[in-house]
Write a structure and sequence with these properties.
Layout (H helix, E strand, L loop, with lengths): L4 E4 L9 H17 L2 E6 L9 H14 L8 E2 L4 H13 L3 E3 L4 H13 L5 E3 L6 E3 L22 E3 L6 E5 L3 E5 L1 H4 L4 E4 L3 E2 L1 H12 L3 E5 L3 H13 L6 E5 L2 E2 L15 H6 L4 H13 L9 H7 L2 H9 L4 E2 L2 H9 L2
Parallel strand pairs: 1-2, 2-3, 12-13, 14-15
Antiparallel strand pairs: 4-7, 5-6, 7-10, 8-9, 10-11
Helix pairs in contact: 1-10, 6-7, 9-10
């Protein structure tokens, strides 16, 4: 039997930070402790923000942290053929349609939802983004608009109404009606590339990913992605949604936190061993003294330790004292 497969999926759109280090080191530790294969996928579909420099920075950060992977890195943009194939498969089933609507039009159509206290926006993969709920009233009538003929047009997935439940390895069961959050989600963009929701599903299925480790801000997205996986005839992975790393204002870390980027911290004296120690401090209360080895990290980042973090709603906060310790020890 083939070993389980996980993936590292940084977006090369800016400098990686301590929040990324937490996610990637946890993924690496779980994988190496339990015999999972690790694939590296650089999610570079956002042509307006992705860059070659950021791609090199992501690779440098992973190598500096001591995070290894199996096989060659993969660029998401190199595999648009499989994203198009997935869209055609959904089109054959009558599940996607052209949606040339502006945000203003979608907002106007969502006004009725707001009046009935239904949600009109959902969290998006990138902080600061918002996803408007696209109501079924905007679906086109039966005809040519249903399908995938015009690749230069936005397309949406006709999301069925009703609650869906997924099982997360850390949070347990999660039940949600994606149609009340996203409505009909965007799956293809007029720039000629898939949306995040479709791309991550298609690429994980292609790589045989069975273990998805990522931040809990994407826990709701997993419910939506489960519907896309089912529609494409794939197998759902095991999801592991980690608690988020936040700053002192309780905001999750983002690429705007340049002072907490791994590149900046390394230049100020931080070491991979102290970052590993910080991960163990968050996982099991290890004191912030000295450095930790990769073997200690593998032993400390255990599923039960992560479940305890989730159940106690532990706050993984990067304080000025932690930054000083990272950069100056001892």
């Amino acid at each position: 039997m083939a070993p389980p497969v996980t993936r590292l999926a940084p977006s090369p759109t800016g400098h990686l930070h301590l929040g990324h280090a937490w996610s990637f080191l946890c993924t690496w530790a779980l994988a190496r402790a339990h015999g999972w294969t690790i694939r590296l996928r650089l999610e570079d579909l956002d042509a307006t923000r992705a860059s070659g420099d950021a791609r090199l920075d992501a690779l440098w950060c992973l190598e500096w942290l001591g995070v290894s992977w199996d096989g060659a890195p993969e660029l998401q943009s190199d595999h648009l053929d499989r994203h198009r194939h997935a869209m055609h498969a959904l089109a054959v089933r009558g599940l996607v349609f052209e949606a040339p609507h502006s945000r203003a039009q979608v907002r106007a159509a969502s006004a009725e939802c707001a009046a009935t206290n239904e949600p009109t926006e959902a969290n998006a993969p990138n902080e600061g983004d918002a996803v408007l709920r696209f109501p079924p009233s905007l679906r086109p009538p039966p005809g040519e608009a249903w399908g995938f003929a015009n690749l230069a047009c936005n397309h949406r997935f006709a999301c069925p109404a009703g609650e869906r439940t997924i099982r997360d390895q850390l949070h347990g069961d999660r039940t949600l009606d994606p149609s009340l959050v996203w409505g009909d989600p965007l799956v293809w963009m007029k720039a000629g590339v898939p949306s995040y929701q479709l791309a991550v599903v298609v690429d994980d299925l292609a790589a045989g990913v069975s273990e998805v480790v990522r931040g809990q801000d994407l826990l709701e997205s997993a419910v939506l992605q489960s519907i896309l996986i089912d529609a494409l005839g794939g197998d759902r992975p095991h999801w592991w949604h980690l608690p988020l790393v936040v700053d002192e204002s309780d905001r999750r870390l983002a690429k705007r936190h340049d002072a907490l980027s791994l590149r900046s911290l390394a230049a100020a004296g931080a070491t991979p061993g102290r970052i590993r120690r910080l991960i163990l401090h968050w996982c099991n209360g290890a004191g912030l003294a000295g450095e930790s080895s990769p073997a200690e990290l593998m032993a400390g980042v255990a599923p039960n330790a992560l479940r305890s973090l989730v159940s106690t709603r532990a706050r993984l906060c990067v304080t000025p004292d932690i930054v000083r310790w990272l950069c100056h020890g001892p």
